[in-house]
Amino acid sequence: MIIKNATVYTSDFEATKTDITIDGEIISALGKADGDGEDFSGCNVLPGFIDIHIHGCNMADTTDGNADSVAKMSKWLATKGITSFCPTTMTLPEDFLEECFGYAADTMGKEEGAYIQGINMEGPFISHAKKGAQAAAHIVSPDYDMLCRLNAICPVRLVDIAPEADGAFEFIEKAKNICTVSVAHTAADYKTGMKAFELGAKHATHLYNAMNCLTSREAGMVGAVMDSDNVMAEIICDGIHICPATLRITFGILGEDRTVVISDSLMAAGMPDGEYMLGGQKVYKKTDARLADGTLAGSVTNLFDEFHNILSYGIPFRQALKSVTINPAKAIGVDKTTGTIEVGKYADLLITSEDFKEIKAVFIKGKRVV
Ligand SMILES: [Zn+2]
Predict the structure, then answer these.
(1) Domain co-membership, 188 together with 140
(2) Ligand 1: distance of its center to the CA of 5 in Å?
(3) Of 14, 77, 138, 277, which residue is 20 to 30 A from 307 by alpha carbon distance?
(4) Which residue in 264, 288, 335, 348 is the catalytic one?
């Protein structure tokens, strides 16, 4: 298969005129190619987008207890140009998490759309004080053995931790050998945050949300993230969780290699306004999604819309594109196989109209799915 005559954003994230030759699942050559192919004149080819924090969409949720939910998510995500993702669990009892991990594992390798990169485990090792929309009853202290048991069912790519919790520091030192460790749903101060990063945590879950912010007299967890060059930060860019001005300032401070756009979406994404479920709790969707008490509960957006949001807020194009492709790939350690358009990587491609607004085609591991 050859993709011809398009403008391609290759590994330097600059526009290049080149053909893309695909051999099976892999990009085998860039540059002028002989032979027949599909003409994509006037189109842009971007690396497929990667959502590493998504609970649900399309009426399905990673932890709704249905065997086909992750498959439903996979299909819908492909229509939005997302080519791989981390189904994300909530704060729930271990036996139920085991069931949900099992369903994700069963789906892996059989996806009809975006493929599964492994689980993002958001909870249950979080703080009561900053639980957000997570269920307080199921919060437990960091438990490395539990992580190992669940990881044996379906690989964990990211695990969340409140670094002030009992045993958190020991947990970080061991868990970092299994997956990326992220600070999340935490009441930790700057000093405790810095200690977590020193011990090997290198990621922050939905920056600003469910953590102490940067203020004049206490830099907080947000300050600790900004002050640590090796830490990447997830950012929800629906324009509601973080206002556009704060987004613009934050992208500027973190620079183009540390910003990771996530959806944090729930099953109501892609669905009409109404009542939905999230981790056993009722959620009301109406432009955003909230619990009955008004707490923001995940989002109803997707990476493609967020990419356009941040461009409209004035984030530079290169940073916006890296934040939905190579940066999430690096954050979960899959940048050797995806995240850029490069020879030897999977042909995970999003082809758009000239103004980037319309999705013209999506290729996942070399197969055209849209
Ligand atoms: Zn979440």
Answers:
(1) yes
(2) 39
(3) 277
(4) 264
Strand-pair category, 259-262 with 232-236 = parallel
Q: Helix (H, G, I), strand (E, B), or coil: what is residue 72?
A: helix
Q: How far is the CA of 198 from the centre of ligand 1 (A)?
A: 24
Residue 191 inside a domain? The answer is yes
Please name the helix (run of DSSP H) or strand (run of DSSP E) that holds residue 285, with its range, or none: strand 281-286
**Calpha distance 29→97 (Å, rounded):** 42
pLDDT band at 54 (very low <50, low <70, confident <90, very high): very high
Same domain, 187 and 126: yes
Distance from Cα 54 to the centre of ligand 1, integer Å = 7
356 Cα to the center of ligand 1, angstroms = 27
The whole domain housing 24 covers 2-44+354-368
Cα of 55 from ligand 1 centre, angstroms: 6
Q: Distance (Å, rounded) from C-alpha 255 to C-alpha 316?
A: 10
Q: Are 128 and 6 in the same domain?
A: no
Reading the block at residue 328, the tokens are 């999430």
The length of the chain is: 370
CB 360 within 8 A of CB 19: no
Q: pLDDT tens digits, residue range 250-293? A: 999 999 999 999 999 999 999 999 999 877 788 999 888 898 88
Q: CATH number for the domain including 281?
A: 3.20.20.140
Q: Is the link from the previous residue into 124 a cis peptide, with omega within 30 of 0?
A: yes
pLDDT of residue 240: 93
Does 40 lie in the same domain as 161?
no
Specify if 348 maps to a domain. no
Same domain as 100, residue 18: no
Q: Are residues 63 and 155 in the same domain?
A: yes
Find the mean pLDDT for residues 97-126: 97
Q: How far is the CA of 299 from the centre of ligand 1 (A)?
A: 9
H or E segment and range at residue 39: strand 38-39
**Cα(143)–Cα(166) distance, rounded to whole angstroms?**
10
Residues 116 and 18 in one domain: no
264 is catalytic: yes
For 164, the token pair is: 């002030």
Q: How far is CA 90 from CA 102, 126, 135, 221, in A?
A: 15, 10, 8, 21
Total domains, the chain: 2
In a domain, 347, yes or no: no
